[in-house]
Amino acid sequence: MRIVMATQNPNKVREFSELLGSRVELVPLPSGLPKAPETGETFLENARQKALFYATYVEDPVLADDSGLVVPALGGEPGVYSARYAGEGADDRANNDKLIRALRSRGLRQAEAWFACALVLARKERVMMEVEARVDGLVHDAPRGERGFGYDPLFSPQGEARRFAEMSAEEKHRFSHRARAVRKLLARLPAPGAGGWV
């Protein structure tokens, strides 16, 4: 089963390929496509926008993910703006630095937080599947670890002292919001040869 991931981010394609396993051949978006709108107020709304937008450009089903970090003590920031928290085009380091400053400005060394993931699978003009998942934990005011991407150096899942960036990919997949969402998605995908992709 071939699915187009609604991103050209190689880290994201690699992570989802690992999670989806051999049932799915995951490929990135073709280059040169316009940027999909992301004007939703929730992760699910944004994922739906992206999936339907790119499904008009490609033949295969499109899987769109919208994920992010929610910190209630910061009013829910960075939330749906997680990827551009420090501004359009900001890199992971800039986003992490802004989050650290926000925590420290409130006198916080750590705070309760969760990572959320919404996945939407669409083909042509139709949404075929939607799933959501989250992982609770703590966000910290200093990074640790060299692995992962995004806010992984700042986040430790519930019951773990280590940050996501200190874990191997296999260890992170035991906890992560994306892994939980993908498990829900895989449970609903049609079995090979079963059809259902008209």
UniProtKB/TrEMBL annotation:
Gene Ontology BP, a term: nucleotide metabolic process
Provide a GO CC annotation, any one: cytosol
Put simply, this protein is called dITP/XTP pyrophosphatase
Similarity comment: Belongs to the HAM1 NTPase family.
Q: List residues binding Mg(2+).
A: D66
- Enzyme class at the top of the EC tree: hydrolase
What biological function has been recorded for the protein in this entry?
Pyrophosphatase that catalyzes the hydrolysis of nucleoside triphosphates to their monophosphate derivatives, with a high preference for the non-canonical purine nucleotides XTP (xanthosine triphosphate), dITP (deoxyinosine triphosphate) and ITP. Seems to function as a house-cleaning enzyme that removes non-canonical purine nucleotides from the nucleotide pool, thus preventing their incorporation into DNA/RNA and avoiding chromosomal lesions.
Q: Could you tell me which SUPFAM superfamilies the record lists for this protein? A: ITPase-like
Q: Organism classification, top ranks?
A: Bacteria, Bacillati, Bacillota, Bacilli, Bacillales
State its Enzyme Commission number(s). Answer: 3.6.1.66
Q: Which GO terms describe its molecular function?
A: dITP diphosphatase activity; ITP diphosphatase activity; metal ion binding; nucleotide binding; ribonucleoside triphosphate phosphatase activity; XTP diphosphatase activity
Q: Bound how, and how many: what does the cofactor note say?
A: Binds 1 Mg(2+) ion per subunit.
Positions binding substrate in this chain are T7, Q8, N9, P10, N11, K12, S67, F149, G150, Y151, D152, K172, H177, R178
Query: Can you name the source organism?
Result: Alicyclobacillus acidocaldarius subsp. acidocaldarius (strain ATCC 27009 / DSM 446 / BCRC 14685 / JCM 5260 / KCTC 1825 / NBRC 15652 / NCIMB 11725 / NRRL B-14509 / 104-IA) (Bacillus acidocaldarius)
Read off the InterPro entries from this record: dITP/XTP_pyrophosphatase, ITPase-like_fam, RdgB/HAM1
